[in-house]
Amino acid sequence: MSTLRVSFSAKPWLWSFIAAVLIWLATIAFTGGQGAGGLLSSALGFSAFFVIVGLGQLFVITTGPGNIDLSIPANIALCGALGMKLMAGDAGLIAPALLAVLVAGVAIGCFNYGLIRLLRIPPIIATLSASFILQSLAIAYGRSVRIQPPPLFYEFCTGRLLGVPYLALAVSLLTAAMAVVLARTRYGRWVLAIGQNARAAELAGGRVGRIRFATYVLSAVFAALCGVLLAGFSGGASLAMGEEYLLASIAVVVIGGTSVAGGFSNVPGLWGAALFLYLLVSMLNTFGASAGIRLICTGVIIIAVIIAVSARQQGGRR
Amino acid sequence: MKAHSFRRVLLCTALSLAPWLAQAATADKTIALSNNYAGNAWRQNMLASWDATGKQAVKDGVVAQVDAFTTAENQATEQAAQIQNLILQGYNAIVVDAASPTALNGAIKQACDAGIVVVSFDGTVSEPCAYRISMNFKQSGVAQMDYLAQRFPQGANVLEVRGLAGVSVDELIHSGIVAGAQKYPQLKIVGTVNGNWSQTAAQKAVAGVLPSLPKVDAVVTQGDDGYGTAQAFSAAGRPTPVVIFGNREEELSWWKQQRDAHGYQSFSISSAPSISSLAFWVAQQVLDGKQFPHDLESPAATVTQETLDASLQGLPKGGIVSQPVSVDDLARLKPAATAAN
């Protein structure tokens, strides 16, 4: 049974990677092989951020239709500023600041779920309103000041081992761990069960409320982590730094082969999708395409990949 | 009763202290700012400048009330509704940093028809009844290329970092860069990316295109993207090119640090956030019955190797180079060539 499921889910998993590799090959063919390694290395580095927020969004989306976390960009802006301010450029304060950021992430997740559950607001509205509050907090707290990260933290966020960024290695481990959590632990199986049929899961003894609560907290914590790492990577936090992660966090989940309707997920596909998105923009930039052409191509190619992925999924499942 | 006379005394004192007596005529006027976006450092500085100028003007009795309103979603429809609210609230003048040059025109026209003075700045509106104050963005693009031509008489490979696609300011600065490239054929544009006026987005876009590029000698930018660009070069282990900056404190600090370490030289140009104060004074003066052309050009703020230390002096963390604006500065505003639009 489980080997059967693995072979099915392996298909969309492969699709996003194949697309990423094709685009990478097209780019280096255009440049005549120049910069092949450098491109891959920077793609791994930037994709790591997409994957962190994608992991959280994936769990949220998996818990069923209507579940989505739109507070991610504001969360990134706030926690990036919080982390940099608490570290204050001092290597000794890295650990306490990281801890504080994770606590802030938990608080944001609790707040999101509080709005959804206690006030009975649909997640899409609840997390969007939460994001207004968080962004305002980020503006008031951060005051648009760019505080440099401590050199040690900067080294970690930008350093490489044989061309592979440390962050990409760390996030790969995190991805593997979360794949195991989803497939093997009780929590992960309830997440899938709720996404497939919340009522049935409840009748089977699943604590739907608690599982969703934990999932929103998980997403907020990952977004908070992404915020502080991104601030370290780009030499300080800025108010607008989370903006692109709203669509990107959803795009990597969907292109990675996870069902938008919930219940069926594909954790490794996040990496393929993140690499694909980054390499796609780089390729069009390398070709010298104008911004208009670039956006049209991005849209068309994303639609093509999603159609390919979903066609495979349905073929596999039926 | 007592409070009333006290206020009158205060008002009289303020008026007698004010060097421009003509402004008494606007002492009962109200001015509102309609702003479409607050989520970056430039807008924060712009709002701070508005706030400081407005508070001082109210204190001096120049106007009765000055407020600022920012929409949450950066959308034209939302801002149009906001302007309609401001009309109903009876403001005498509305100053606008607009989400769109055309989509607000209906609401702007309603305001004009209601006898309200409308002054747009930065993000200007095309409705003829409104005033427009803006930097000459095309010229700022040309100025960057002028500097590079003088730095690299033998020629150079130039990377262009553009702003947000589809926004008129991005097109204008880009047209200046293109004009500069035609003027100086030795400057070769080897790549173009969109940095979306965000340090992180610029860093990402530049890092993606860098491996495929030949040696890059210089980078032209649009503001709030120079620091991220420099980060991308150092992360890729490439020698740092001459990056033109956009007057942000973090950029100037980095430039100073590089200069002190190995004699790095550059140039910086951007729109000064105090343009909101300029717009305030234009609105106040129009309320006072003064005449202005409807298209005005605000000066660009620049930083050179010589003025770097002076510009950093007193610039707060996260600040942007700006100059304090008073009503007297209006005399130096030039009418803008409308052909740019």
Automatic annotation (TrEMBL), chain A:
Parts of the chain that traverse the membrane: 12-33, 39-61, 93-116, 123-142, 162-183, 213-233, 245-264, 269-287, 293-311
Q: Which Pfam families match?
A: BPD_transp_2 (PF02653)
Ranked from the top, the taxonomy reads: Bacteria, Pseudomonadati, Pseudomonadota, Gammaproteobacteria, Pseudomonadales
* InterPro entries reported for this sequence: ABC_transp_permease (IPR001851)
Output the PANTHER family linked to this UniProt entry.
Answer: ABC TRANSPORTER PERMEASE PROTEIN YPHD-RELATED-RELATED
Where is this protein found? Answer: Cell inner membrane
Signal peptide extent: none
| Protein known as | ABC transporter permease
Indicate the family of this protein: Belongs to the binding-protein-dependent transport system permease family. AraH/RbsC subfamily.
- Membrane topology term: Multi-pass membrane protein
Automatic annotation (TrEMBL), chain B:
Q: Which InterPro entries match?
A: Bact_Solute-Bind_Prot2, Peripla_BP_I, SBP_2_dom
Q: Which Pfam families match?
A: Peripla_BP_4
Localization, per the record, is:
Periplasm
Q: Where is the Periplasmic binding protein domain?
A: 31-291
Signal peptide coordinates? 1-24
Q: List, alphabetically, the CDD domains matched.
A: PBP1_ABC_sugar_binding-like (cd19997)
Major localization listed first in the record, in broad terms:
periplasm
Q: Which domain of life is it from?
A: Bacteria
Keyword line: Signal
Regarding protein family, the annotation reads: Belongs to the bacterial solute-binding protein 2 family.
Name of the protein this chain belongs to: ABC transporter substrate-binding protein
Species this protein is from: Pseudomonas typographi
